[in-house]
């Protein structure tokens, strides 16, 4: 019920992002010749699953968490919401008989724009989009309820989503790519950068031990996408060489955990925090590079399961 009483500007941002996503999904189905009036109801699946999983995801995380910062002004899990939107797009393509990989690629930029709108709506959700107190106002600052300049985390996260949207549009235009690679590459880039942005949030988050729960979900998304990217090559007997990407991703996740312990003073407390932030940045850059490398890999003649059966 709390969602019904959001500020009007927040609702406007969210509805604008949803409208862009729905229009691009409809156009993708039209381009593939799969749009029919009798299946128009399937266009509502992304919104229904996005809202449902986003709300359910928060309730599940709230059970798992062992630390909650301040009072939540918006009970929502963005990662679960994005998973719901993605699952809805996939289900819509399946029910309409369209190619799921192509549909996900063609709507990836719109999906990132929808997430940018959702992040931008945090501007009017109080502590949800705020970071630490700053020494002086600036471009990346906003004023809290006590007229103190704080870091506008929502602005950083919105910029990350817009960057991912540009990456999705660029990846979707590449020839010879594997279906779904533009979607996977853009969303993974967004998730990797969001891990760092989430670290700055101080207004509202759930935490398990030293890691924010949203950060753990970002890492799970990255790992699943990396496993998907390497699966086709593993089927061709090249798994030992190519599963290394997933292994490297896990090692970098361990590096992020170590950096988190350093920043919290639980590991090497005598070391300056700049070392922890440097390690954090290097791990995030490495993760983004790994995911983009997997997305940029060409199809190199590998057949999908459907093509193999037809042959």
Model description:
By secondary structure, the protein is mainly alpha-helical. The protein has one domain. It is 66% helix and 6% strand. The protein contains 10 helices and 6 strands. The protein has helices at residues 8-31, 45-64, 78-96, 100-120, 153-172, 181-200, 213-242, 244-263, 273-296, 305-310; strands at 67-68, 130-133, 141-143, 149-152, 206-208, 211-212. The strands form 2 sheets. A 3-stranded antiparallel sheet has the order 1-5-6. It has a 3-stranded antiparallel sheet with strand order 2-4-3. Helix 3 runs antiparallel to helix 4 and helix 4 (100-120) packs parallel to helix 6. The longest helix is centred in the C-terminal third of the chain and has 30 residues, at 213-242. The protein starts with 7 loop residues before the first helix and ends with a helix. The model is unreliable at 69-73 and 300-311 (pLDDT under 50).
Topology readout:
Blueprint: H1 8-31, H2 45-64, E1 67-68, H3 78-96, H4 100-120, E2 130-133, E3 141-143, E4 149-152, H5 153-172, H6 181-200, E5 206-208, E6 211-212, H7 213-242, H8 244-263, H9 273-296, H10 305-310
Antiparallel strand pairs: 1-5, 2-4, 3-4, 5-6
Features:
disordered C terminus, single chain, 3-stranded antiparallel beta sheet, mainly alpha, 66% helix, 6 strands, 6% strand, 311 residues
């Amino acid at each position: 019920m709390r969602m019904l009483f959001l500020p009007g500007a927040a609702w406007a941002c969210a509805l604008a992002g949803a409208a862009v996503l729905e229009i691009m999904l409809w156009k993708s189905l039209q381009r593939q010749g799969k749009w029919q009036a009798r299946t128009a109801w399937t266009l509502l699946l992304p919104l229904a699953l996005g809202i449902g999983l986003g709300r359910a995801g928060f309730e599940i995380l709230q059970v798992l968490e062992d630390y909650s910062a301040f009072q939540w002004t918006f009970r929502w899990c963005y990662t679960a919401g994005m998973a719901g939107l993605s699952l809805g797009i996939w289900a819509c393509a399946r029910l309409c008989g369209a190619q799921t990989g192509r549909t996900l690629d063609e709507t990836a930029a719109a999906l990132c724009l929808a997430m940018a709108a959702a992040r931008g709506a945090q501007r009017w959700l109080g502590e949800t989009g705020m970071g630490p107190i700053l020494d002086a106002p600036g471009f990346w600052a906003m004023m809290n309820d006590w007229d103190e300049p704080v870091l506008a985390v929502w602005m950083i996260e919105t910029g990350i989503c817009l960057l991912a949207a540009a990456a999705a549009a660029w990846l979707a235009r590449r020839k010879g790519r594997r279906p779904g690679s533009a979607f996977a590459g853009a969303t993974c880039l967004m998730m990797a950068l969001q891990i760092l942005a989430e670290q700055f949030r101080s207004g509202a988050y759930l935490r398990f031990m030293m890691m924010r729960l949203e950060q753990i979900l970002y890492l799970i998304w990255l790992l699943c996408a990396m496993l998907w990217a390497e699966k086709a090559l593993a089927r061709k007997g090249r798994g030992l060489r190519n599963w290394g990407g997933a292994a490297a991703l896990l090692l970098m996740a361990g590096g992020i955990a170590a950096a988190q312990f350093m920043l919290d003073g639980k590991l090497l407390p005598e070391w300056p925090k700049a070392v922890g932030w440097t390690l954090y940045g290097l791990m995030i850059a490495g993760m983004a590079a790994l995911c983009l490398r997997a997305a940029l890999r060409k199809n190199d003649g590998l057949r999908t399961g459907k093509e193999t059966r037809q042959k």
